[in-house]
Amino acid sequence: MGLLQKLARKIVGKSSKSDRAVPASVSSQPAGKPAGEQRSRRSSSSQSSRRGHPPRREQSSDSWAPGEPGSAERPARSEKSGRPDRGPRPPRRDRPSRDGRPNRSGPPPRQRDRGPERGGSHTDIPRPEALDATPWDAASFQVTPEEGKVRFHDVDLPAPLMRAIQELGFEYCTPIQAEVLTKATHSQNISGRAQTGTGKTAAFLITLMADFLHKPIEGERRNGTPRALVIAPTRELVLQIAKDASALGKYSGIRCEAVYGGMDYDKQRRQLDAGPVDIIAATPGRLLDYASKGVVNLRSVEVLVIDEADRMLDMGFIPDVRRIIGQTPRKEQRRTLLFSATLTDDVRRLATQWMTDPVEIEIEPEQVTTDTVEQIVYSVTTRDKFPLLMNLLKDPAFKRVLIFGNRRDRTKRLSERLRRERISCDLLSGAVEQRRRLSILEDFRSGRTRVVVATDVAGRGIHIDDITHVINYEFPYEPEDYVHRIGRTGRVGTEGVAISFACEDESFIIPDIEAYIGRTLPCRVPDEALLPPRQEQRA
Fold this sequence. Notes:
Elements: H1 2-21, H2 24-27, H3 35-50, H4 77-81, E1 95-96, E2 102-103, H5 159-167, H6 175-184, E3 190-193, H7 200-214, E4 228-231, H8 235-248, E5 256-259, H9 265-272, E6 279-282, H10 284-292, E7 303-306, H11 309-314, H12 318-325, E8 335-340, H13 345-354, E9 359-362, H14 366-369, E10 373-379, H15 385-393, E11 401-404, H16 408-420, E12 425-428, H17 434-446, E13 451-454, H18 456-459, E14 469-472, H19 479-486, E15 496-502, H20 510-517, E16 523-524, H21 534-538
Parallel strand pairs: 3-8, 3-9, 4-6, 4-7, 5-6, 7-8, 10-15, 10-16, 11-13, 11-14, 12-13, 14-15
Antiparallel strand pairs: 1-2
């Protein structure tokens, strides 16, 4: 009996301790809930806890809350776990929804800023004038008239455009600018023969902006519906056009967007959707893509500009250009400006198809290659080319140098060899990724890189005004490529130097180039100081 009595006392003691430790509100079952369901919920709660999920809190009318009767019976958190008591929890702000689930109150979900809705007024776009409240006096822009030169004052241009022209340091029109701006006042279609570096970009941009400022559109405009479309063959040229448009439109509020492949698709799409755009400068492929998806609508284009038409013909872009032009108004209902380095029969046929009664303007290539660029040809062996190049680069006058080669692999080897000689050098070719290309051009423009080695394809898209020297490390295969190469220097009336290396395998092209540019190239043997001693070469 003594053993049974001791066992009974232990059982009774444990039961009484358990009853004192558990509050009545927790130990009691909710009304209408059978014990089996309660055990099932505890079981699922413990399993959820073991899986790493917190147990679900049950909401009921008799759940414990601070200040209610019986709250003193609930042990503080510090009594159970030894942690500091954080005080009572605030009441939950959840409200039951129609389906009985709590709707969490709190900050609303973050939403992406999609910019203005389509159809916003053109005045919704921030105007550049608002950024510069300084008044401008047209009398401060004085240019002395000179015989044989056309001033921008001689053309009827709005004041905001003249202010930007003054800020850019322009005084007299280049030949192509004078021709285009004087004929553009009569709203004529133009087919122009002009190479890069003649100022033709500013010529057609000033023409477009003057038209838009003279004839503003009132009321709402749909996003992605440009008033002017500029089609160009390369990304770099498109970016340069957009940059020039931004500078010229600084005080007129005219907005230009660049559309080209190789960059973030959605980012460009958001920029087009950010508000009405006046000018779109684009390469054919990406523009067709956006047009097919309705991002861009070309039915309201008033002026179409086709830049470097001969290059687009060579690169096979004409079918895409035809599809783009087919989405613009009929040629009788729009103005068309076409520019090409050469007006071949093929280019003239395209001009006839795309415009009515065009006025033909020709700027002779001699005005570019002869008047502003000093041309030198060094007769040299293939073996002596690199030593000659290194000795030329020792001259501090070679501040910003563009070197051309014919093949991608050769230009790559040349750039690597220059870097081994500690020459600040970068490579531009079709194999260079687009973001890297833009970075290289920016470094070259800012002076962080002194030398860039490029192929002909990459060289077509280089538009930097302060290139002091162009070096043809290899003679080009075509006279047109020679003209385009040396046109990278001596731009817009500045002076430049073009040096060509003619080895035994390349001299045959010289007569064709001389016939093309209409002058004789001065050929000479390099001075002994520019070549290594013969004994070093044999070693």
